[in-house]
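HUMAN: Mind sharing a backbone?

ASSISTANT:
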Amino acid sequence: MRTSLCDRLGIDLPIIGFTPSEHVAAALSRAGGLGVLGCVRFNDAAELDRVLTWMDENTGGKPYGVDIVMPAKIPAEGTQVDLSKHIPEGHRAFVDKVLRDLSVPPLPDDTDERAGVLGWLHSVARSHVEVALNHPIKLIANALGSPPPDVIGQCHDRGVPVAALAGKAEHAVRHVENGVDFVVAQGYEAGGHTGEIASMVLVPEIVDAVDVPVLAAGGIGSGRQMAAALALGASGVWMGSMWLATEEYLQTMGESVAMQQALVGATSSDTVRTRIYTGKPARLLKTRWTEAWAAADAPEPLPMPLQNLLVSHAHNRIHAANDPSVVSMPVGQIVGRMNAVRPVADVVADLVAGYEEALSRLDKTR
């Protein structure tokens, strides 16, 4: 299973795992892959610094990376109050009505509620980069295209490679022209922000279009799928959804029991690609919340980051409600294979065993 990617990043397995959980990221790095911590949940740079310090102390000296969000076509700056002024009252009223219709209770008065995610803003994302580069990270990935040239240069000056996600070959070519070192070819099946081309088609298109290592993302949750990704020319895999159903995820997101129940009970048909989560197309678990936004009386989602600010309070209430039928969670079609909550190390062991079995089966067909 070892590829050139392993030597480049100092890892044992070509498995890159994106996760908002530092416990998952650290466990994956300890298991031989590369845990990549999503930074967008950190509005406070000092909080991110504390978490990365924890990562330094809990990865057993193994490498890890971070994921930032620097979208190119949204308001680049502004406070939450400034941006909230652009949210129409009709959209606020619709969200309030849906929460009432779904019987989602209000938060207790003493709740220390996390504010809307401001990590979409360039100023906040830049602070994430500055903090991360003060830690021994081995990769910075941008979830929404190429980072600005000066950010790429800043990373390269510190010897840190940069990755960017792409949903089309032309996007991948542009990333490489901008100085990106790795391209994540993310297919239609993937959770979160994703394009319209399936992985089986997208991965070889991007491999043929660029001369940098390509990571396959979307629809990968078994060793067989890993073997297929490498056969298509990828140097490794980028996985996100599978880590949501792990024991370590609960160590970070302690009130996610209902979410994991919903994921474990879902099939590969139980997702929907929609703009209601952030304003950009993203694949989510299909629930009563997503169905309400698909109704005839629902307004059109707002552009990023306004949609995220609109629904952030609702997401907090949904999360606290502990009701699997209304959770709002990005997840890929691979959710159909997520049938139990397991330790990260067990997921990795199954990936390796399944990969070896796939190669053995192919060898027998010669």
